[in-house]
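User: Continuing from earlier, I have the next pair ready.

Assistant: Great, send them over.

User: Here they are, in order.

Assistant: Folding the first of the pair now:
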Amino acid sequence: MKERYKVVVVGTGKRGMHHAAAFQANPRFEVAGLSDVDEARLNAAAAKLGVAAKSTDPRRLAESVRPDVFCFCTPPSVRTDLVRAGIESGARLIAMEKPVALSSTEGFEIRRLLEGSGVKAVVSHQHRYGEHYRKVKEAVASGALGRIHTVYGTSTGWMMHMLSHLVDYVRWYNGEADAEWVMAQAAGRGKLTDLHPSPDYIAGFIHFANGVHGVIECGAGAPDVPEVDYWWRKCRIGAQGTDGFAEVLTGGGWRMVTKEGACSGGGSMNYDLDMPPYIQEMADWLDDDAKVHQCNFGSAYQGFEIMMAFCRSAAEGGQVALPLASGGDELEMLRAAVPQRKVLLAMAANAKEYPS
């Protein structure tokens, strides 16, 4: 009988409960402890899941439970302390929400901690498991699109919510090739004070080592996806090649045009379908070092550096080479450089002001 892995989940909001429920439903895991700063929410979650060990102090809980998996689904302002708590608890794998960090300086430190400890880590880019996302990946891999020359992603959601996803999936469609440089611009300061601090709009280009060109738009200036009704699902991600294109809409299926003609299919963001395989791959990786989780930290970190390079380019101008040679505080760079004026949108021939 295979080993059963103990899990501590920190954060019992919507995403934390998605994780906890998926761990609990998998026979390879036991949700052994829960933590949240909101005691009432924590008590409700513990009662719902039938978990006895709970605490508003995640470090103390982890030290007591000694989990195999330390999972946290918290705001991005508390990444480093929780990574350190997971490592010090003796966890073998840390599962964390995106983005990896709020600055390249913090990202460097998190990478140093993980590499020094040898602890495995994964970052929640769970949409990779959506059937419609995988249809595009299969189209690229099959050669039906010919030679891929461009990958792209757009979202009307703001950077710290959505850019990590966009970059991860375009990298995935491009075989996770290394990026050599980026160039970007940003506008609008309304969201820089948000819990997920971001410019109102950021857009840029990625030059990959295999010659493929990446195009990303994120925020208030990005094109709408009218086929989809809710902002979190208004993402368009795809690949163009010499013989056609294929793209996925997070909340609206997939479509493809090749020399053989046009085809399309359904699919939408669905945690009930996307989370189980994301969780199962953690068990597989814990069982066997060779079965590296496809959302592993190393891959996610490359996408994170692209995000931070976008911010540097928007703040300082010009191309930014990758990988980054030194850390910095990219959000402070943006706060100093981005104009005060708000972003204006032109939608359906009507100019609309983006709410700050």
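And the other member of the pair:
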Amino acid sequence: MFLGESKKIIGNIVRFTYIRNPNSVFGLHIGGPLISTILTGVAFIFVIYLFTTGKHRLFLTGISFIIGGALGNLADRFFYMEVVDFVDIGIKEYRWPTFNVADSFVTIGIILVIIYYWVTEVRYANSTSNSV
């Protein structure tokens, strides 16, 4: 595929569109490629720290997904100073920003970590309300 080319996968709802993203997530401009690479690296180190302190399987699974996705994007940024995005979802002119598989892993990981914290908070709230 050439840069900007689109191929329909599921009608016009799901397409593969080849773009290169020198910016941060979803093409947000946060200081250019070098700053994006540095911020991704710092976030990656923080997530590694969370992984080393976690104990619950759901939390560790979520963090593992985040680490895997971050590594994929970080490798692209390190070697090419940009990330290849290609998953293009939407209806007609209403489209989500184009993303890649690594972004999906980060997103799923964040959702799993949120679910873990939500379940933990519900358990904690129930245990404290029952003990009073």
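Worth noting for the second one:
Residues 6-131 form one domain. The chain has a mean pLDDT of 86.
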